[in-house]
Design brief:
Elements: E1 2-9, E2 12-17, E3 22-26, E4 35-37, E5 40-44, H1 49-59, H2 65-69, E6 73-78, E7 82-87, E8 93-98, H3 101-108, H4 119-132, E9 141-145, H5 152-165, E10 170-174, H6 176-184, H7 189-200, H8 214-237, H9 240-277
Parallel strand pairs: 9-10
Antiparallel strand pairs: 1-2, 1-4, 2-3, 3-5, 6-7, 6-9, 7-8
Helix pairs in contact: 4-5, 7-8
C-alpha cells in the first residue's frame, strides 16, 4: 500500500493513503511529500489527524496527493434538504456540504460517515434517511458536474447505478466550471439547470420564471414530460397504423359486395335460361 509522507517522528512517519486513511510506518529517511510503499507499524492512525491536516495543506497542489485531496467533481442532491457531495478521482466522497437548513438537519440525522464512501453509496444513505424522515421523494433532483471526455464513463457508471434503484429522480449534468461560477455567485446550480431544460422543452416561461424552489421546478418538468409523452401516444394512435386498421375494417364489406355482384350475375344467367326455354 502506497502513501504520501506527511510527518516524521523518530523512525516513524505519518502517511496518508490514496483513499484518505492515515497510517503509521517507517519513513525510510524519505522527504516529506514523497509517495512510496508503506512499511506499516500499526493499523489506522488517528491521533495526529490535526497535525496531518496542516501538513496536508502544505503539500496540496503538487505530487500525487493533490489528485485525491482536491474535488474532482460535485454532485448536488436536492430533495428539499439540499446537500453537496464533493468527490475525488477515486469517485469517493471527500467533502459534504449542506446547502440549506434542511440539508444540515438531514446530515445531523445520519449516524454513518459519508466521507470515504463511494458516490452511489452516499446518495443511497441520504435518500434512505430522507425517506425515514418522511420527506417527499417524488421530485428529487441530482445535478452532477461532467468530467473530462476520457473519464466521463466513470461518473456515468455511478449515475447509472443511482438511477437503476431510484427511477423517480431527475438527473441533470452541468459543466464543472459553470457549476463553480454559479456557486460563487450564490446561485443554486440545480435551479439554473432546471430552468434551462424547461426552456429547451418549450414550456411556457410564465409557469417557472419566478419559481426558485428545486422541487417545484422538478414537478413542472415531470408534468411537462408526461404531457409530451401523452401527445406522442396520441399522435401514434392517429398515425398510419390507425389508417391501416381502418382499411382492414373496410375490407370485408367490399368482399360482401363482390359476392352480391356474383349472385346477381347468377340471377341474370337464370333469366337467360328462361329466355332460352321460351
Amino acid at each position: 500500500m502506497k502513501g504520501v509522507l506527511l510527518e516524521k517522528k523518530g523512525h516513524q512517519g505519518i502517511f496518508v493513503t490514496q483513499d484518505g486513511a492515515f497510517v503509521k510506518g517507517k519513513h525510510k529517511d524519505k522527504a516529506i511529500g514523497e509517495e512510496f510503499e508503506i512499511e506499516k507499524l500499526a493499523t489506522s492512525y488517528r491521533t495526529y489527524v490535526a497535525v496531518a491536516v496542516v501538513a496536508l495543506m502544505l503539500i496540496i497542489g503538487f505530487g500525487p496527493l493533490g489528485v485525491y485531496a482536491d474535488p474532482y467533481g460535485y454532485i448536488e442532491l436536492d430533495i428539499n434538504p439540499s446537500v453537496e457531495l464533493a468527490y475525488n478521482r477515486s469517485m469517493k466522497i471527500i467533502k459534504v456540504t449542506p446547502l440549506n437548513d434542511d440539508g444540515k438537519a438531514l446530515l445531523d440525522e445520519i449516524d454513518v460517515r459519508l466521507k470515504g464512501n463511494t458516490l452511489d453509496k452516499a446518495v443511497d444513505i441520504l435518500l434512505e434517511r430522507a425517506r425515514i424522515l418522511n420527506y417527499d421523494l417524488n421530485n428529487v433532483v441530482i445535478v452532477y458536474t461532467k468530467l473530462d471526455i476520457a473519464e466521463e464513463s466513470k461518473i456515468e457508471d455511478v449515475i447509472g447505478q443511482i438511477n437503476s434503484t431510484n427511477d423517480t429522480i431527475t438527473i441533470l449534468d452541468i459543466d464543472k466550471e459553470a457549476y463553480k461560477e454559479l456557486k460563487k455567485d450564490n446561485v443554486p446550480p440545480a435551479v439554473t439547470v432546471l430552468k434551462s431544460k424547461l426552456d429547451e422543452m418549450q414550456v411556457d416561461k410564465e409557469e417557472y420564471i419566478n419559481v426558485d424552489k428545486v422541487s417545484e421546478l422538478a414537478h413542472i418538468m415531470n408534468q411537462a414530460k408526461k404531457a409530451i409523452q401523452a401527445e406522442k401516444r396520441q399522435d401514434k394512435g392517429n398515425g398510419p397504423d390507425t389508417e391501416s386498421r381502418q382499411d382492414n375494417q373496410d375490407g370485408p364489406p367490399s368482399n360482401t359486395n363482390k359476392g352480391n355482384s356474383n349472385n346477381n350475375s347468377g340471377g341474370n344467367n337464370s333469366s337467360g335460361n328462361n329466355g332460352g326455354n321460351n
